[in-house]
Amino acid sequence: MAQYLLARPVRLSLDTAAARSGLHPELIRRFVALSLVDGTTDPSGRVWLAPSAVATLARIQRLRAGLSLNYAAIGLVLDLLDRIDVLEAQVRSHRRWT
Q1: 78: domain range?
Q2: Is the whole model's pTM more than 0.70, yes or no?
Q3: Within a domain: residue 75?
Q4: Fewer CB within 10 Å of terminal CB in the chain, N or C?
Q5: Domain total for the chain?
Q6: Hey, which bits of the chain come out as E strands?
Q7: Position 3 in a domain
Q8: Nearby residues of 81 by Cβ (< 8 Å), 6 or more positions away
Q9: What percent of the chain has pLDDT over 90?
Q10: What residues contact residue 41 under an 8 Å CB cut-off, 6+ apart?
Q11: CB 12 within 8 A of CB 54
């Protein structure tokens, strides 16, 4: 089924995300390549990120600096934290109706 956008999606350029996170753009590009951060590439090769990527970049920085995790371990931890968020949301929604 075709999807039609009524408005342009909100997204950040690589340079804007770098300025907001304090990271070098090439490091963010590496994170996108490693699938630590979701990013899209337009036909001209520019990388675009969701606004929520800034929080993910901060989380990656904390895991790397605080726990000295390598990037593979950071990917695993990020996946587990996302799963925990989903499960906690399910528990909260279940409690409301009991």
Answers
A1: 12-96
A2: yes
A3: yes
A4: N
A5: 1
A6: 12-13, 39-41, 47-49
A7: no
A8: 59
A9: 80
A10: 47, 48
A11: yes
